From TrEMBL:
It comes from Candidatus Eisenbergiella merdipullorum. It comes from the Bacteria. This is YlxR family protein. InterPro entries: YlxR, YlxR-like_sf, YlxR_dom. It holds the Pfam family YlxR. Residues 9-83 form the YlxR domain. SUPFAM superfamilies: YlxR-like (SSF64376).
């Protein structure tokens, strides 16, 4: 039997390669909205982050999401993502 290939994604915060299921997907929709995609199946451009607040802070500092999405991201969006991350970690 063949082993099933695990899709790997790189964290835009710390740069580590991990399995797709172990990471959170940040999504840019066609309208330009940026949100957290907990299902990993919504339409749009995706960037991946480890499931830790530290990686989100690193991505904010090193502008990882801005590079992935090729657009500027205002601080309000990062604040909203931090709140969504906190809610997800609390579950």
């Amino acid at each position: 039997m063949k082993n099933k290939k695990v899709p790997l994604r790189q964290c835009v915060g710390c740069g580590q390669m991990k399995g797709k299921k172990e990471m959170m997907r940040v999504l840019r929709t066609a309208e330009g909205d940026i949100l957290l995609d907990t299902t990993g199946k919504k339409n749009g451009r995706g960037a991946y982050l480890c499931r830790s607040m530290e990686c989100l802070k690193k991505a904010r500092k090193n502008r990882g999401l801005e590079r992935s999405f090729k657009m500027g991201i205002p601080n309000e969006v990062y604040d909203k993502l931090e709140k969504e991350f906190e809610e997800f970690e609390a579950e």
